[in-house]
Amino acid sequence: MNNKTVSILSGAAGILLAGAIYTQVEKFPEYAIHASQYVKFLLLVLAILSGVLLVMSLFGREAGKPTWVKAPGHFFATAVLTILMVMSLKYVGFYVASAVYMLVLALLLGLRRPLLLIVCTVLLLAIVYGVFVRFLSVPVPLGVFEEFTFSDIAGSLAKAKAAWALL
Amino acid sequence: MMQMITDAAMSLLAPAPLIAIFLGTLGGIIIGAIPGLTATMAVALLIPVTFGMNPVVGLALMGGVYSGGMFGGAISSILLSTPGTPAAAATAFDGYPMTRKGKGGVAITVATVASFWGGIISTIALLLVAPILAKFSLRFGPPENFLLAIMGLASIVTLTSGNLIKGLISGVIGLLLASVGMDPIDAYPRFAGDFPELYEGIKDIPALIGLFSISQLLDLTGEASIVQELAADISTLKENKLPKGLGPTIARGSLIGTIVGMLPGAGATISAFISYNTAKSLDKEPETFGKGNPKGVAASESANNGCVGGSLIPMLTLGIPGNSVAACLMGGLTINNLIPGPELFSKYGTITYGFILSLFIANIVFLFLGIYLAPFFAKISTAPNSLLIPGIAVLSVVGSFAMRNMMFDVWTMLAFGFGGYFLHRCGFDLGAVVLGLILGHITEEGFGGALAISNGSPAIFFTRPLCIGLWVCIFLLLLPAIRSRKKAKHTVD
Questions:
Q1: Which helix (H) or strand (E) holds B182?
Q2: pLDDT beyond 90 at A157
Q3: ipTM confidence
Q4: Mind listing the pLDDT tens digit for each residue in B114-161?
């Protein structure tokens, strides 16, 4: 697919998107006149601009091809692992998910310095704990480790196991 | 007044206030540099902490966090293309390309000096002419705010380096995304579906982190390190000499920041974009912007730090905070029984002037910290991407979650990241999307509010004196960009 085709498809997609949103706006209740007017105006502008892009691309010249992904292996590894990490937050919590994510992704991306990787992972998680959790009292998702305490590791792990069973 | 200023200066020359300013500024820089953590959050959390303190020390601590936080946003924006705060989004346009060229140290030095002057000039305005400027800011109503947002949106024309139509479409996409959630007049939840999290709209921070950080991170998977054009001599990284000819850009940006900062609802982000747009429009080589021109960094940073003093002008004199941080600071004042108004500058003059003077010291503190630490910060850009990518992703996740403690925001961040990556690959401008998203609320509120005042007549946008002045400014800002595009087209033909 070359740049010209991408622009033609983008223009067509813009018009379709404007039309699709317009049908949703038409369903707004009558009292929400202000809510719909502004969006309708934006959709009109989007449709006009997309139309102009479509016409210009059809009759104009655009050289070259877009590079969708530079290194497919690294790209998909990053994308898939990032999604998996976010999905796992609910279950294993931020610290476990992030530690595993950092170690695995860095190795997949080609880092071959295990000591540096472990030090950086621990340091980053320590910073998050120090700045976010301790200093600013911003919680992070803890998943099954919600009630974990270092004073009672065995008990905490049992609670985590029970929480996991509930999930 | 002079006696009160002298007394205030003396009250600051003690170990406790000076330590408070230093720690506040340092903490602010760290918080500002971490995506998702904002100065608003830090100042709000400090209010109960400072309750038992001497008011001068407590306010100096909060002022330091505010100044440092506004500057800190530039560091991650320049080095990782991940704005620590929305106000630093425009800094990434030229700061990150500078890092890619191995000039991260210079970019941070430019940001430090520009932020310093922005902060100093706006604090001078706060100290000397606050009451007069506060009255001026009251003349800004919904129509003027709408035109101010239009002035910010006009940046799309100068911001877009490729296909202008795609740039404009990107801006409209941003405005449409900003329309998600309850509209400001009818309070009807638009496009929220079954997600109550969307009733308040799409939050700026997760969207910004996704568009800038995650999409950039996916792009970096194809490269070994961020720095692409480092000269043979690695010592160029340590170079942090300030480029010449930045004075007028910094002075202009500082004034824009001060004026826009004191307008309630406008804030640092819009001022940074207006300043960037102005600098590019007035420059002899506008085509170098977006490719690593230090003037782009200077324009954006002087304006967003100019907002620090600007936002405090209506807060201290009228009790109307210019932005959310100023609102939190007002909480810090009232908790000490300091009610904004004339009494702050007479009965409680020593404390108020002490607070204002502490902002000068905070600016000096981050000037030294920024210049001294710039080469060390710049080394981050040479770290292997295999280490940076997972690290940035983890910080992006926690930063998105931190705003409302909601997983929904983390998914929003990812959606914007992947969507932004492919939009960019199709030739659309992510900066324009961000601009539309951030300014969308102000645009709609101003537009709807103005028409409500005028009973639906759009003439209100063309008859008020300030509106006419703003239209002239918009036209003058757009003129050079349109001319240079026509010139470029002629050259190509």
A1: strand B181-182
A2: no
A3: 0.91
A4: 999 999 999 998 888 776 776 777 778 888 888 888 888 887 777 776
**Interatomic CA distance for residues B351 and B349, integer angstroms:** 6
Query: Cβ of A51 under 8 Å from any chain B Cβ?
Result: no
* Rg of chain A on CA atoms, in Å: 25
Q: What pLDDT shows up at residue B172?
A: 94
Q: Which of B42-46, B75-79, B417-421 has the lowest mean pLDDT?
A: B42-46
**pLDDT at residue B492, as a whole number:** 55
Tell me the two tokens of residue B336.
Answer: 């000490």
Domain housing B183: 2-492
Which amino acid makes up residue B476?
L
Write out the two tokens for A140: 């992070």
Amino acid B170: pLDDT: 93
Count of pairs with CB atoms under 8 A, one residue in A, one in B: 165
**By CA distance, what is B410's nearest residue in A?**
A86
A28: chain B residues, CB-CB within 8 Å? 188, 190
Q: Which is nearest to B78 in space by CA: B64, B97, B61, B63?
A: B97
Chain B residues with beta carbon closer than 8 angstroms to that of A111: 384, 386-387
Contact B30 A3 (CB under 8 A): no
Does A70 sit within 8 Å of B222, measured CB to CB? yes
The per-residue pLDDT for range B401-434, each reduced to its tens digit, is 887 888 999 999 999 999 999 999 998 988 889 8
**DSSP state string for B259-286:** HHHTSTTTHHHHHHHHHHHHHHHH-S-G
Residue B249: which of B68, B73, B115 has the closest Cα?
Answer: B115
Report which residue type is found at A67.
T
More reliable by pLDDT, A123 or B317: A123
- CA distances from residue A8 to A3, A22, B293, B432 in whole angstroms, order as listed: 9, 21, 33, 20
Cβ neighbours of residue B14 under 8 Å, at least 6 residues apart?
Answer: none
Query: Which residues of chain A have a CB within 8 Å of the CB of B394?
Result: 98, 101-102, 124-125, 128
The confidence score (pLDDT) of residue B301 equals 93
Contacts of range A57-64, beta carbons closer than 8 Å, 24 or more positions apart: A57/A4, A57/A7, A57/A8, A57/A10, A57/A11, A58/A8, A60/A4, A61/A4, A62/A2, A62/A3, A62/A4, A62/A7, A63/A2, A63/A3, A64/A2, A64/A3
CB–CB of B169 and A50 under 8 A? yes
Q: What is the mean pLDDT of chain B?
A: 83
Q: Which two tokens stand for residue B24?
A: 């506040």
Classify residue A137 as exposed, middle or buried by CB count within 10 Å of its CB (0-12, 13-18, 19+): exposed
| Residue B231 scores a pLDDT above 70 | no
The tally of domains found in chain B comes to 1
- Token digits for B331? 């909480």
